[in-house]
Amino acid sequence: MQIYLPIAEMSVNVFLLLGMGAGVGFLSGLFGVGGGFLMTPLLIFIGIPPAVAVGTEANQIVAASVSGVLAHWRRGNVDFKMGLVLLLGGLAGSTLGVMLFSFLRGVGQIDLVISLCYVIFLGTIGALMLYESARTMRRRKTAPGQRRKLHQHNWVHGLPLKMRFRRSKLYISALMPLGIGFLVGVLAAIMGVGGGFVMVPAMIYLLGMPTAVVIGTSLFQIIFVTANVTFLQAYANQTVDVFLALMLLIGAVIGAQFGARAGAKLHGEELRGLLALMVLAVCGKLFFDLLVTPSDVYSIGVAR
Amino acid sequence: MTRRRPVGLPVTAAALLGLATAGLLVPAGSARANSLVADLSSHRVAITTGFVGTKVLLFGATEGAGDVVVIVRGPDRPVVVHRKSRVLGVWANTAKVTFDRVPSFYAIASSRPLAEVAPVTVLARHQMGLDNLRLELTWIKASPNVARQWRAGLIRNQGALGLYQASVGRVLFLGNRLFRAEFELPANVPTGTYQVEVVLLQDGHVVDAQTTPLTVEKAGLEAEVYDFAYQYSAIYGLIAILVALMAGWAAHMAFRKA
Asked: If you count DSSP H runs as helices and E runs as strands, how many of each does chain B have, helices first?
């Protein structure tokens, strides 16, 4: 059964979209990630124009994050004050990101920049996660019961504009979360992701937030950042396809439930290792595509 | 289901018969001007939810012998073509060229192979066949040879999208006077007003030609969503967010107990 997507201006099989949504939803439920970094490359792979893929995926992540954050909110795992500071940076960053996106699209470099962003950030994060989980798994076997320090004191704690974040038990400079929010906002707009895969490690390692509040707070700010991206992409570029977003959403919601159940059976470190491998696989595929000689060096761009 | 089927055979035959008699009844004096009559089975293609592409049927009649060539052209648009080359090991777009007026769709059908129908000059003048398509570059900074490569790149890309049909379709003659031709419009067919040009050639000369418009447009919900997204972009963006918020909330509620 085909459905004609009005904004993407192409006809796609409904079951393919539902299946992609369910598959990515399953993995995102399993690993507790948004799944944007899988979905956007997949959409581009099936022929959705990159601009539409990025704009639409932002829209879908809004919905996914809302349902996620509600669950965390009930358990009191959202640091709203930290979320708001990250959000301020995120709104500025994503606005700049959408402007950058429009500019790069006009000069015909957007595909390359999207791919490079994926390769660089997925590669770095994936490698770090793999290293981390391998180390922890090894340590668990050799020296169990060793407790890590809550966080280290470094140059970050010397920055001005200090704020107290009670929920996160932190007294740090607001510049740090503002800066992280900004950077992740730019990435979210360009890569069509929520940015959780950068935000979560940054919150743990750079800000030193307790792990319990990290996911909820990250999801909280992702809602607003992706909503901002959705609005700006729809307003400036007309690249948000609500039909496509809804199709993906239906599959993702169902898939995520099964994923979450499957995830409960796996060990945390094993999960992280598997996620790292998956992230590296996506990164490797995109990197390979950049290196291999294209079937046609000529391509059609967007006429302004 | 909106896929347009070709008109049933009896109907086509009756229509063709009507056309043929109409052609025959024309006074001999104006025979030259009226030696070709043709029409489409439908002048409007509606793109709706289930659109998977469609066929357009053209039928007509000629007076006297000759070859018939039919060209379907989508509305002209400017097109930017990028060329990739290796930069620091990765393939990146490094050059671009703008073609001012590029038909967004092109298909051609002929009663005999084009080379036998008319000499090269005539084919070129009437832009018959992809090789003869006039694609104007805004400016050419390189040699004609390089310009030809850009042109070939454009045609190849349009072909890969199914928008330029490389093979020449067939104009089928039923008897001496009646002919028909069929064109496939793919699911990604651009919208706008198409020109369907029917040309009658005798001994390599164009003796008559007729142009019929064909409208391709989005219809129903698709059209409304598309128009809304472009005309009221801000409201569309807000609605998209609202829909996502509600969907997320609904998902949370639906699976809360589970």
From this structure: 6, 11
β-strand A170-173 against B169-174: which pairing, if any? unpaired
Does residue A298 fall inside a structural domain? no
- The backbone torsions φ and ψ at residue B174, rounded to the nearest 5 degrees and listed phi first, read -105, 100
- Scan residues 53-92 of B and list those with Cβ closer than 8 Å to A: 53, 77-85, 89-92
Residue A154 lies in a domain: no
Return the DSSP state at A205. Answer: I
Any domain includes A151: no
**From the candidates B2, B79, B82, which should be mutated to test the interface with A, based on the most A CB atoms within 10 A?**
B82
Banded model confidence at residue A148, pLDDT cuts 50, 70, 90: low
Contact A127, A287 (CB under 8 A): no
Residue A142, Cβ density class (10 Å: 0-12 exposed, 13-18 middle, ≥19 buried): exposed
Alpha-carbon distance of B243 to B74, in angstroms, equals: 36
State ipTM: 0.84
How many domains, chain A? 1
In a domain, A42, yes or no: yes
| Residue range(s) defining the domain that contains residue A287 | 2-141+165-291
A contacts of B74 (beta carbons < 8 Å): none
Least confident of A65-79, A151-165, A282-296: A151-165
